[in-house]
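User: Please work through this fold.
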Amino acid sequence: DLPPQLCLTNPGTLKYFIWEATQYVSGKMVPGSFGCRPLLRDHEPYYIFQEDDNNYFCKCKNCQDYVKKHSYLELRYHFINEIAKAVKATNPKAKVATLCYSSATGYPKQKLENNISVMPCLSLHSYYHPLIYKRQHDYYKMWVNKEGKNRPLMVYTYMRSPAVEARS
């Protein structure tokens, strides 16, 4: 009876993740979550938020209505922006890290909070295919051109080979 994806329109979902994130950046452990890892001393605390990596959006009416009218990407970054604002209010050095890939690879229309770091996930193992190469490289250039001077950007690469992909 669980949705196939995290519900980002439910105020309770946002409230929980804000609670978890603010607990974590305050140095408190949250058993069973990302926040069960201790903070590194002398480093800015990064809370990591990443929902499931699929396009099976939550099936609740609010989420379905939203994705019919807007991009899921906008809902996602609105949610992350709210977490980022809360952790900054708790700890001005705190940051939120997230990945961008699949349905979340594009660039949002809304301005991102300055304490969000983004890691585009690029399928370098598929670069032999000209269309995949162009799409992935365009995403990379877009993020670097728009945000490279504004926030930490890292790249997650899938380092496999065409032979591995052909057997999949």
Q: What stands out?
A: The chain has a mean pLDDT of 85.
